Amino acid sequence: MAQVIADKRDVDFVLHEQLHVDALSQHPEFAEFNRKVVDMIVTEARGLAVKEMLPTLRPGDEEGCVFDQGAVHTPASFKRAWRLLQDGEWLAPARDPRWGGQGMPETVAMATREYLSGGNMALFLCAALTHGAAHLIEIFGSESQKQTYLEKMYQGRWSGTMLLTEPDAGSDLGALTTSAVKNDDGSYSISGNKIFISSGEQDLTENIIHPVLARIDGAPAGSRGVSLFLVPKYHVNPDGSLGERNDVFCTGIEHKMGINGSPTCSMALGGKGRCIGTLLGQENRGLAAMFVMMNEERLMCGWQSLANASSAYLHALDYARTRVQSALPGGDGKPVAIINHADVRRMLLNMKTYVDGMRSLLYFIAYCEDRKRISTGDEEHYQHLIDILIPVAKGYVSDRAVDVCNTGVQVFGGYGYTREYPMEQLLRDVRICGIYEGTNGIQALDLMTRKITLDDGALFAELSEEIRKTIAMARETSRSAFLAERLDACLNDLADSVSQIRERLTRPDERLRVMVAASPFLEATGDLVMGWMLLWRATLAERALATGARKKDAAFYTGQILAAEHFTETAMAMITTRLQVIRESRGIALDIPEDAFGGK
Ligand SMILES: Cc1cc2nc3c(=O)[nH]c(=O)nc-3n(C[C@H](O)[C@H](O)[C@H](O)COP(=O)(O)OP(=O)(O)OC[C@H]3O[C@@H](n4cnc5c(N)ncnc54)[C@H](O)[C@@H]3O)c2cc1C
User: Fold this and answer.
1) Which N-terminal stretch is annotated as signal sequence (predicted)?
2) How far apart are alpha carbons 346 and 323 in whole angstroms?
């Protein structure tokens, strides 16, 4: 039977041949995660995703969530799937076993997330947010907050959310108006309204713990006056049992184009004047703390995107192998499976290159987390790589995932547009990844105005150094050496553009003009990072073929080399031109008078 979430051979390749994840088990931290254990974990996750989560994907979309007098009912099939996620301890696989985690490497956890999110993105979103909220408590919480919440959240008995967005504070969180007043006992009374809160209310867990951004009365305006609070749906008694209902209620849910199994809630805090929360971290340092969770969820957008794109590719591939339509030009006149048609092959190879590259990138970032954890001395280097790659993993990857799912619809022809096949849902669902956790426009600005300028350009320099290691490795091969030269030339071009952008950003009259090109710059950087990942893969494949691969493996490795060659002569070939356009851009979008846009 055809695979439908992620190609097992490719997941194995990234884990074992590209990142050598079992070598991590030489460190005491990960001693028990040898290859056998890693394979067992991934097989378990795959089984759960395919057998239990995938069957809830379509019913979850059709049934959606129902709001009823403050309560929210999730799709019926989600209850069992959530319980299985809990039973299998899939919410916090990489966290400390002391708090209910499994202590596995992030790289392995990434493979489990790809499968589980691919099984049902809307349901697994609740698990991912629960992990993020609990991790926030683990990092910034007091001992008492950790004891009260952590284990139950990592176990999935209680869930977690993030309450940031307000009607007038979306991209600009510093504009939020939710307020907090300190009580005599050290707690805070919170009041305000939040919107678009994923799983703000649901019927899967006994309690819901809300990290909430609010401003303490008298705090400075803007982002410097924002604090972070923990607001549980039910207060927790000293013995850990559930106490009184807190004054935080869902007032309605959104009707959306996708992830319909995930309730997107409007939340009223303190409507009756009795919403009590505790400070998480320090006063007025809330936004910085919240960024830890936001960065985690930005990566989540990356792996959600990967999972949907990968599913779309595998479905399209399977369909193209079986759908017979039209004869080949110059052939025997008999209709053939559409995989034989040039344009369909182009579409499939485009999809494959992006999916492969995205998988390598997302797993590599997780691998950097692991290296950070076990390293002595080069933690900062790995953190720098993670920091500069996050806008690419979130912004670029989610945009490409939409393209991949869209191409998947096209491969199916008219059937892709119907609800008979999963393609249209994959496309609708994945579209959110470019919007939440900071829109892709904000990711592009983050890359251009912060990440490439931080530490006097150290992050970009370290990324370049990492890419050059792959280029050097590829130069040792016969076939990929040519690709290495192309990537090297693009990297030099990108470095020139980075210098020019940094210089323009220092000039007040130019700063806004160069920002017009932020998204194209993210695209060019993302294409280069994809090219890097694909070259890395091709080099390993070429080496494996040279040492005599088995027949089935030979086809896999040939696919790696051809994918890298295809990407080099399509997307990568455009990088130089794109960068030139960015360098020469005058930012005309700033000059057009508002009236000249028309429409009035
Ligand atoms: C399904 C769903 C689930 C969500 N879940 C959560 C959640 O759990 N918790 C939560 O707090 N929020 C959540 N959100 C909210 C989400 O994070 C916001 O919608 C997002 O951050 C954008 O904010 P906004 O909608 O107010 O758009 P706006 O901020 O109004 O942005 C509109 C457009 O303007 C652009 N823009 C804005 N500012 C700038 C700028 N400075 N420079 C350039 N361009 C700019 C944006 O890129 C965008 O294209 C969710 C949203 C959805 C749809």
Assistant:
1) none
2) 16
